[in-house]
Amino acid sequence: RLPYLYVGVPLGKEDFAKVNVEVFLDFFCPFSVKATPTMVELAKLDNVAVRVVPYPQPWHWEGGVIATAFNVVLKNHSSEAAAKYFVALMKNYPKFKEEGKKMSVGNMVKLAHSLTSGIVEMKEDDFLTEFNDQESPGVVRQLKNQIKYGRQNGIHETPTFMVNGTIAGAASSSWDIPKWKELLGPLLEAAAKKN
User: Fold this and answer.
1) Beta strand 160-163 pairing with 166-167
2) Confidence category of residue 59, pLDDT binned at 50, 70, 90
3) What's the CA gap between 35 and 23, in Å, rounded?
4) In what order do the strands lie in the sheet with 160-163?
5) Maximum Cα–Cα distance for the chain, whole Å?
6) Distance between CA atoms of residues 9 and 179, nearest Å
7) Cβ atoms within 10 A of the Cβ of 6, count?
8) Percentage of the chain modeled with pLDDT above 70
9) Contact present, 28 and 97 (Cβ < 8 Å)
10) pTM of the full structure
11) 71 to each of 118, 132, 192, how far by Cα in Å?
């Protein structure tokens, strides 16, 4: 089945730009959490688009729960709202980690719903119905497509960064904006010469 939405969500003002960075993140990966603020800042640069793709790792069952919750918002609201929700989910990693220690899926889903407040309006019952939807074009189907997209691109670890469709193997969650500018600068210069 083909995805009903383009996989992932743009973090900034542009879906696609002269330089496109896709980042595969696991909501339960501390390195993915660490990379998120930099990706938000990177998306503010001119001619750079950043798209995040949920990619829960099998050893982080909690990441799948959170990614499914993310897809509830992505399916039912704008990309801008989904991007804000993505950041809120990542910022609350410590709370999710605590619930994960208790093996409490129900509490994790309730926490995920509570984070929609101020971003989107969605009743808890509606959120839970969507969360449990197993039918295409449901949120579980979208999560499967996100994972399929990662697998077809050879993604194993999170975070993994792709620049213009190619894995940037040296890129790291520890990189700051100057380091990203160092990598992307030549691409931006080449794109500017084409115009």
Assistant:
1) antiparallel
2) confident
3) 9
4) 9-10, 48-54, 19-25, 160-163, 166-167
5) 55
6) 23
7) 14
8) 96
9) yes
10) 0.89
11) 17, 11, 35
CA pair distance 114, 39, nearest whole angstrom: 24
**Helix or strand holding residue 41 (H, E):** helix 30-42
Contacts of 31 (CB under 8 A, 6+ apart): 158, 159, 173
CB half-sphere exposure, 36, CA atoms < 13 A: 23
Q: Rounded to whole angstroms, how far apart are CA atoms 131 and 138? A: 8
Three-class SS state of 28: coil
Pair of tokens at residue 82: 């989904």
Report the chain's mean pLDDT, rounded to a whole number. Answer: 89
3-state DSSP assignment of residue 38: helix
State both tokens at 72.
């509830």
What pLDDT digit, counting tens, does each position of 121-162 carry? Answer: 999 999 998 888 777 567 888 888 899 999 999 999 999 999
Q: What is the per-residue pLDDT for 164?
A: 94
